[in-house]
Specification:
It is a single chain. The protein is of the alpha+beta class. The protein folds into two domains: 135 residues, no CATH class; 107 residues. The protein is built from nine helices and six strands. β4 and β5 form a beta hairpin. It starts with a helix and ends in a 13-residue tail after the last helix. The C terminus is likely disordered.
Length: 298
């Protein structure tokens, strides 16, 4: 079982290491500058260096990038920023990251142009807590931004075979256990993602208590369709149970558009009943348990 999981994950996917680098925007404030009726040894005070919509735009952009990656990549169980990407989706992911990097550079340039003005505004607002030495030049500040990504593989080094008897097999066993755990986590993540989409579909298709139909947005069908269309590529842990429900969902919305759901009560009711059945099965499959992250110290 362990060997099969290892083969499934390592042969069908690669690890993607993504770095979202930004200029730090907080500094500690000395409690000597704070006048409060409290034991200052109990206080830890920070200040924001900037209040800049251009900086916030970069953060928002990063958040959307992470959200999209969650629809294509899978948990790696390593540190934050490490994703497992199915081989069949690597090209799509790589093209997306290149596009996002270009967009991000444009946002950083807007930040650079506004930087001097935003620093002046912050210094005025911070007043006595302002320290001009906290601020870099515009060019130096923009050098702190970057979006990086690289692909890596993870395996037990063959060199261990010659170092100590049993060491290679010991490490191989640890890696196999990690792959088992990773496979289970991947199954859980895909099940939870589908459950959330199915629940939203059922909720929006179920009339209100007064019988009034709820508004149907294009994203209701679009998000479900996107999940179903990428499921086979992302199902690298071979979750046969979930695949059955995915196939049922595909049948339930085959040929269905948001317009049909808005205009046809019959189609609306049919899809609602189909997804309610799927929802009940998903509820039985999902088991709440804390996710584990691996580090190289394990």
């Amino acid at each position: 079982m362990s060997e099969q999981n290892k083969k499934t994950l390592d042969d069908k996917s690669v690890l993607l290491v993504v770095g979202f680098h930004r200029l730090g925007n907080t500094r500690k404030v000395s409690t000597s500058q704070i006048d409060v009726d409290a034991d200052k040894s109990m206080l830890h005070v920070n200040k924001n260096l900037l209040d800049a919509r251009e900086y916030d735009a970069i953060k928002t952009h990063d958040g959307k990038t992470r959200a999209w990656l969650a629809t294509r990549a899978l948990p790696s169980l390593f540190k934050e920023g490490v994703f497992r990407v199915p081989n069949t989706l690597v090209v799509e992911v790589d093209d997306y990251m290149k596009e996002r990097a270009t967009e991000r550079r444009a946002l950083v340039e807007k930040f650079r142009k506004a930087y001097t003005e935003r620093v002046a505004e912050a210094v005025t607002r911070l007043n006595g807590l302002a320290n001009i030495n906290d601020y870099l030049t515009a060019d130096q500040a923009c050098e702190r931004f970057g979006l990086t990504w690289r692909y890596v593989t993870f395996a037990t080094p063959d060199a261990l075979k010659n170092l100590r008897a049993g060491l290679f097999e010991s490490e191989k066993g640890k890696l196999a256990k990690m792959m088992d755990d990773a496979a289970e986590e991947i199954k859980t993540v895909l099940r939870v993602q589908m459950a959330a989409l199915v629940k939203r579909m059922v909720t929006q298709l179920t009339p209100s208590k007064d019988g009034k139909k709820k508004k149907i947005y294009d994203s209701l069908v679009g998000n479900v369709s996107d999940f179903l269309n990428t499921f086979n590529a992302r199902n690298i842990a071979d979750d046969a149970e979930l695949k059955k429900l995915v196939d049922q969902a595909r049948q339930a919305i085959a040929g269905v558009t948001p317009e049909f759901l808005r205009e046809s009560d019959g189609i609306r009711e049919s899809v609602q009943k189909g997804f309610e059945t799927i929802q009940k099965e998903l509820d039985k499959m999902i088991v709440d348990k804390p996710a584990r992250q691996f580090s190289f110290d394990d």
